[in-house]
Amino acid sequence: MESLTVALGERSYPIHIGAGLLGRADLLLPHLRSRQVCIVTNTTVGPLYADRLRQALPDREVLVVELPDGEEHKTLDTLALVFDALLERNFSRSCTLVALGGGVVGDMTGFAAATYQRGVNFIQIPTTLLAQVDSSVGGKTGVNRPLGKNMVGAFYQPRCVVIDTDTLRTLPDRELKAGLAEVLKYGLINNAVFLDWLEANLSLLLQQEVAALTHSIRVSCAEKAAIVAADETETGQRALLNLGHTFGHAIETAMGYGSWLHGEAVAVGMVMAADLSWRLGLIPQAAARRVKRLVAAAGLPVVPPTLAVETYLRLMAKDKKAEQGKIRLILLQSLGSALVKADTDLAMLELTLAAGSNLTER
Ligand code: NAD
Ligand code: GLY
């Protein structure tokens, strides 16, 4: 097992990474404030892993809440299922919520923990690659609304993150690839050496080779932990973690939540960001094409869905980074370095939005 720290003063917490950690009660016990533990999971992950977790806590009052599976259920209505289950069992302010699942379960459990009786402890046990490298770390929690993704939520940090790499064995291939999008993101925004390594090792990652996957999780978590420690509530550099996300969120919202996976939308969004960075003269065309090649090699989409340019612009202006309707984008200044651009040239942006299968081409 390896452990990293998210350094946030009194609210610092460990990220444990390794095989077989699901049964390691010793990692969880220091963070439980009372006997009451609520495992929040979903109808897919619960049957696979909830019992193993429950058995690790034999002397606790363990409640398991299984939510419906899917991004389309990341809603306030679904959240109410958690609150009602906690209230029915008289769970008090000293209870602990444990998120067992992907990013959807993690984001909702975190928000439930932030708001149940004005805040209870929570622990993240992420079971998708995407959640292991991104969503379980950093304390962004929340739910979607029909008009915008993740628009209702809170910054609320977990007490610890336990990443059991064994859980990836049951993850469908499409979900593994979606997670790789966020892994590529760290290379693109801040770590050219890691990007080179990813390019050389993509086929091992796609075959789920354990050492390669564990390395990619460790580097990704270290990148994320450093950014979160420096800018917890996204007043500055944390925004860089949203490379491709403004395009991606527009795609997810327009296509209907759950139709494009989050990682897929982010993947093509990163190609769109690379395309725009090239059109604006920030990176050479060859670099933008390299991004497209990498995303394609990871088995991820490089052609955005056909949406009217006005639809993209309308949805992108609703992004959380937007200020008074003005779109702010994360762009690349090299492969391994990103920047926030507030005053993007609209004509250039429209070219990117209209490029379709010709992204990174004139
Ligand atoms: P997800 O939670 O929907 O999980 C993907 C699918 O895999 C689901 O069907 C799930 O039931 C299944 N699954 C999970 N673990 C499994 C396992 N081990 N074996 C078999 N099946 C398994 O999707 P995701 O990609 O994990 O997360 C996407 C969500 O995360 C989005 O809502 C996105 O907005 C959010 N997100 C949040 C942050 C953050 O900082 N909070 C960052 C990135 C993404
Ligand atoms: N996934 C973006 C962030 O955590 O800030």
Task: Indicate the topology.
Elements: E1 2-6, E2 13-18, H1 25-28, E3 36-42, H2 45-55, E4 61-67, H3 76-88, E5 96-101, H4 103-115, E6 121-126, H5 129-135, E7 140-145, E8 148-155, E9 160-164, H6 173-190, H7 192-206, H8 210-230, H9 245-255, H10 262-279, H11 285-297, H12 309-316, E10 329-334, E11 337-341, H13 346-354
Parallel strand pairs: 2-9, 3-4, 3-5, 5-6, 6-9
Antiparallel strand pairs: 1-2, 7-8, 10-11
The chain binds nicotinamide-adenine-dinucleotide and glycine.
What characterizes the major β-sheet? 7 strands, mixed
Helix content: 40-55%
Q: State the CATH architecture of the largest domain.
A: Up-down Bundle
Helix count? 13
Mean pLDDT: 97
Name the beta content range: 15-25%
The CATH superfamily of the largest domain is Dehydroquinate synthase-like - alpha domain
Tell me how many strands there are.
11
Q: In one word, what is the shape?
A: globular
Count of separate structural domains: 2
Supply the CATH class of the largest domain: Mainly Alpha
Given helix and strand content, the structural type is alpha/beta
